[in-house]
Specification:
The complex is a heterodimer of chains A (281) and B (263). By secondary structure, chain A is mainly α. Chain A has twelve helices and no strands. Chain B has eleven helices and no strands. The chains are: A mainly alpha (281), B mainly alpha (263). Chains A and B meet through helix 1, helix 3, helix 4, helix 5 and helix 7 of A and helix 1, helix 3, helix 4, helix 5 and helix 6 of B.
Chain lengths: 281, 263
């Protein structure tokens, strides 16, 4: 019997081997490469903290600060837009929730660079939005190439990742629980804060990580909607690799960025299924 | 009543917000003027030219091939891992699934850069295979995510019963477990395919100079101005996915109905 058990374990390990080896080769080792380059000197490979200290350079510090600011604002805007929407969609009582998932995932099938570029057309000084405003005799907006445009781009691109997990958790709340609260004399406000909101927290948390991390680290949205006038930490890192070819300083800054990602995950708390897309599909 | 109407308006506004840029792109695909910001009249020209533009067709071919192959390999690797994880002790299980999830939780730019560093350090030539390897890697967690819950639901005793009745393990697996987890495998494959198709950042860092995917091609064109054929192509892709999804949705809604009628 014992023999059979060990044999089964061996077989199981054999089954896990290909994927585990793959992950060691292409996930673990690459991350160790970043650690290695981030902590060594470019010239002679000796150990140094210089690359990490680059974050204190005024330009880099400002870029990191701006990234944090914009990604926090975008995340908050996404929660504020998505939560009421989730409640309303729940109220619609549509039978097939795959239809709702479809409506919010479908835009992702058009290339995200093109969709972000289309916002240029809408937001430009002579763009679609301002043309409409002019017809209505309203004051025009000049937000292209400003941080506001970047926030809009972030909210636009990542809003579905906030909507779907929130909607999913809200939709699963049993109507009987809410009715029970009502029967026991809770008013609308009390039912929301004591029943609905606490039950939906997992969805909100998963939405927050799915919006915050990509917003914090983007370089594409700022490149397209900020002209080259707005520099985020993602842009700084990308330039280190693609323009300056300085792997060491780029890796050092990436390490700093990873610290912030880990901090954000620790901050919102991490349960097993809080993955990007975990709650969306 | 007022509350209901204002709710409908809110939902409509969000949907308009999400679809406005798509509408802009579709309109641009019929724009006679080459400029992004001028309307020069209606034309089908870009659709005709699209099929003569070898650069774009090549990028499309590369993109689709990488999406297909990476989804396929990721599905195989991810499914075997999911099955193995299902019978593992807690600690190794937690360690392996956390490692698998890293590419999904980490920043794309870090994942892309880390793999680029590895390829350059071992003198692996950047190109089709490096992009493919990178895409397989970031697709594995999505497969794991959709297969693992299905595996949890399967009944292990049925599998053991099949073994007791003399079925070979592989035969028993394909006859007993595989049909149960197949929906999960399929949705994992589709998710991986979509993720690969939509990826820009990781391809950007791992592609080298020789190959272009649609995303990287669009990115290099952003400064010079996008070729209108690209709008035509993305409109075609969007519309075909839309039709496909509506058909699938209809069919499953239909199947659901029949089920309830039979009951």
């Amino acid at each position: 019997m014992r023999n059979k058990e060990t044999k089964r374990r061996q077989k199981n390990a054999l089954l896990a081997a290909p994927c585990s080896l793959w992950m060691i080769a292409f996930i673990i080792i690459p991350l160790l490469m970043i650690v290695y380059y981030g902590l060594t000197k470019r010239e002679d490979g000796s150990i140094t903290l210089e690359n990490l200290k680059l974050i204190a350079d005024p330009i880099n510090r400002r870029a990191l600060w701006l990234s944090l600011k914009l990604s926090i604002i975008s995340t908050i805007v996404c929660v504020l837009l998505a939560y009421p929407l989730g409640l309303m969609l729940r109220g619609l009582k549509i039978k097939s929730n795959s239809f709702i998932v479809l409506v919010f995932m479908l835009p992702m099938w058009m290339n995200f660079l093109l969709r972000t570029l289309a916002w240029l057309n809408i937001l430009e000084n002579n763009g679609i939005l301002n043309t409409i405003l002019k017809i209505l005799h309203l004051p025009t907006l000049h937000i292209i190439n400003t941080p506001t445009a970047i926030i809009l781009g972030m909210v636009y691109n990542f809003l579905p990742f906030m909507i779907l997990p929130i909607y999913n958790t809200l939709e699963k709340i049993d109507e009987n629980v809410i009715n029970a609260a009502r029967d026991l004399g809770a008013n609308g406000k009390q039912t929301f804060f004591k029943i609905i909101f606490p039950l939906s927290i997992p969805g909100v948390i998963s939405g927050i990580t799915m919006v915050f991390v990509p917003s914090l680290t983007t370089f594409v949205i700022s490149n397209i909607l900020g002209g080259s006038k707005v520099l985020l930490i993602g842009n700084v890192i990308e330039q280190q690799f693609q323009k300056l070819n300085n792997w060491n300083s780029g890796s050092g800054l990436s390490l700093v960025l990873m610290v912030f990602i880990l901090l954000s995950m620790a901050f919102v708390g991490k349960d097993e299924n809080t993955g990007r897309g975990a709650a969306t599909w | 009543m007022v509350k209901r109407i204002s709710q409908r308006i809110y939902i409509a506004l969000i949907i308009i917000f999400l679809y406005a840029p798509i509408l802009v792109l579709i309109v641009l695909s019929f724009n006679k003027s080459k400029s992004r910001s001028k309307w020069g009249g209606f034309t089908f020209d870009w659709y005709k030219r699209l099929f003569q533009n070898e650069n774009i067709l090549n990028a499309l071919y590369t993109t689709l091939l990488i999406a297909l192959l990476s989804a396929l390999f990721a599905t195989i690797l991810g499914t075997t891992l999911a099955i193995a994880l299902n019978h593992m002790r807690r600690l190794p299980k937690a360690v392996l699934s956390s490692i698998a999830n890293i590419p999904m939780l980490n920043a794309e730019i870090v994942t892309g850069i880390s793999m680029m560093l590895l390829f350059l350090a071992i003198d692996f030539k950047l190109g089709f295979s490096s992009v493919l390897i990178a895409h397989i890697t970031f697709n594995i967690p999505y497969v794991l995510l959709s297969v693992a819950p299905k595996l949890k639901q399967t009944n292990h005793s049925t599998y053991e019963a099949a073994l007791d009745l003399g079925a070979k393990p592989l035969y028993a697996f394909f006859k007993v477990i595989f049909p149960d987890i197949f929906p999960g495998i399929l949705s994992g494959f589709l998710m991986a395919f979509t993720m690969s198709l939509d990826d820009f950042v990781i391809s950007h860092f791992t592609r080298g100079a020789e190959i272009q995917t649609l995303s990287t091609k669009i990115y290099t064109e952003t400064r010079k101005g996008i070729k209108p054929e690209m709008y035509a192509l993305s409109t075609l892709m969007f519309v075909s996915v839309l039709i496909l999804l509506i058909l699938i949705n209809r069919r499953s809604a239909h199947a659901e109905k029949e089920k309830t009628i039979k009951k």
